[in-house]
Amino acid sequence: MNPRDEHHDAQWIGEEAGPIVRPYVLTRGRTEPTRGRFDLITLAVTVRSPSPGEPGITPECHAIVRLCQQPQSVAEIAAHINLPAGTVRVLLSDLLDHGLITLQEPHSETDMHDERLYRAVLDGLRAL
């Protein structure tokens, strides 16, 4: 087994806690976003970087803010930071509440026929 895989597994499974604890802790037990609609194809874009020591901004939130310098779908973000999409939705909601990101939804049905969007979502899902 690759040592990197061992580290990856260790972050998800504790001897007593099991595999669900990390996402639960990251979201402080929340399972739903406080606001915003976060489909797998919803795009998040950073609008500002967090202030140093800004309360409530975890390392995972910092990673999302850096990643979203270019628009990223929820599926892509989940794949890049290796977290479940549900956890990413809650973290994105926190970032939205802090004014760090904005959301972009497809504006019309014609946007849904953009092959780049489908490729990005598929690439994100494959990485999961």
Structural features, described:
With 128 residues, the protein is mainly alpha-helical. It has six helices and three strands. It has helices at 3-12, 21-26, 59-67, 74-81, 85-97, 115-127; strands at 43-46, 72-73, 101-104. The protein has a three-stranded antiparallel β-sheet. Helix 3 packs across helix 5 and helix 4 (74-81) packs across helix 5 (85-97).
Task: Please give the structural blueprint.
Layout: H1 3-12, H2 21-26, E1 43-46, H3 59-67, E2 72-73, H4 74-81, H5 85-97, E3 101-104, H6 115-127
Antiparallel strand pairs: 1-2, 1-3
- The neighbouring-strand order within the major sheet is 2-1-3
Main pleated-sheet profile: 3 strands, antiparallel
Instruction: Tell me, briefly, the overall form.
Output: globular
Please mark out the parts with pLDDT under 50 across 5 or more consecutive residues, or reply none: 1-10
Distance between the termini: 19 Å
Helix content bin: 40-55%
Mean pLDDT: 76
Radius of gyration (Å) = 15 Å
Number of extended strands: 3
Q: What string gives the helices and strands in order?
A: HHEHEHHEH
Strand coverage percent: 5-15%
SSE-based structural type: mainly alpha
Count of discrete alpha- or pi-helical segments spanning 4 or more residues: 6
